Amino acid sequence: MIAIIDYDIGNLKSVHKAFSFLGVPAKLTSSHQEISAAGGVVLPGVGAFGEGIKNLQRKNLDYLIKKIAARGVPLLGICLGMQLLFEESAETPGTAGLGILQGEVKKFSLSEVTKIPHMGWNQVCMQKKDPLFCGLSDRSNFYFVHSYYVQADEKDVIGKTRYGIRTFSSVIRSNNIWGFQCHPEKSSIFGLQVLKNFSEVIENGSNSGR
Amino acid sequence: MLTKRIIPCLDVKDGRVVKGINFENLKDEGDPVDLARYYDREGADELVFLDITATHEKRKTIVDLVEKTASQVFIPITVGGGISTVEDMKLILRAGADKISINSAAVRNPELITRGAEKFGSQCIVAAIDAKRRDSGGWEVFISGGRKGTQKSVIDWAARVQELGAGEILLTSMDTDGTRDGYDIELLAKISETVSIPVIASGGAGRPEHLWKAIAEGKADAVLAASIFHERDYSINEVKKYLAEHDIPVRIAEDNQK
Questions:
Q1: Chain B partners of A186 at a C-beta cutoff of 8 Å?
Q2: A81-116 pLDDT tens trace
Q3: Residue B139's domain spans which residues?
Q4: Which residues of B8-38 are buried (b: 16+ CB within 10 A; e: fewer)?
Q5: Of B75, B198, B254, the CB nearest to A119
Q6: Measuring CA to CA, which of A47, A159, B92, B222 is 20 to 30 A from B125?
Q7: Pairing of the two strands A118-126 and A157-163
Q8: Chain A residues close to B168, C-beta within 8 Å
Q9: Domains of chain A by start residue, with CATH
Q10: How many domains does chain B fold into?
């Protein structure tokens, strides 16, 4: 069972719908018990960093996610859910993120890109082999929509994307933790493949492959 | 590189897709899920459902439609047509839509854009603008399905919706809409350089070169079209191949790569 963390932020159901379509058991939940018992956890989310953290804190989910991450449970952050894994964001200076991963969350600058948000399909240039990339070709297109981007520690970056003259970390992996800036649940066949791969990582009980 | 988006627009009435759709291999032409799946396979980058349901009581059919489509088709979905409250937005987004397009309601009540953006994020709010050329130059914003002038300048209104928090502009030229003679390139270029949010071109697509022109010369970030796709004049894949051959970055769906 995959627990999709419900923290009252936009469009959490799409991820659930995608897993249902794939026939993968998943539940949208904020119950500590259910999340702790899950074989894998997804932290989805669209919206603002500050609001996201606040909502997690309100339900003590911040603490729980850190505990789960440390326990080695496969954890997948999507879009804002990925950004929340970092220490802080330029979106809400002074508000601490989950601090599970190291890197910076910065805002796109109109001196580097022509339009903000970065909205639409863009290529993920794979930097390393990864079980979540299984069945995908390099430079597959994924759907993005975000105004802030992550510049992660280079060792954790497994996918990069270029927008305007800015290259950012679009997919990250650190042991049992993955982050996708793009939305697999809105990226048609390739996106569904990523979610399927994630479910298989959980099933196989291995998150090696690195 | 960010690709340019090709977006088919489907008119929906009472939960069914209407208007001149002509597909041979669809069991049920009016079934939104079938159509959405078809367009997804063809390489549509997003889908827009425009709800033209007249009666208020039947409006909840759009929520069911979104719910069903979003359970089967995994590309972004925008819903527009008659949405005038944050509560409406919430219901439709909850059903699985990614964006809400608002038009007349935003002109009547600009605060709706801001409240929607604060609640759901700017990326959820698409400001739809219907533009008509003025004899004296420039363009005027029209509302109520193009029936009512507002005296507002389109250029000013476009800048204003960005300020209010819209994440994108869906710009329809009433002069070129339905003509199949091409988009209003001058209007597009003007608005694209005025705002720093993405602009979707709409109204006038008849041939692949029209979409090319909207992107290359009108600087549109995305192009929306209806009849050119629905009537099978060109498939989305054909249009995308044409664009790719003419140096426009597009996403070619996997099924069509051979």
A1: 74-76, 98
A2: 999 999 999 999 999 999 999 999 999 999 999 999
A3: 5-256
A4: bbbbbbbbbbebebeeeeeeebbbbbbbbeb
A5: B198
A6: A159
A7: antiparallel
A8: 119
A9: 2-204 (3.40.50.880)
A10: 1
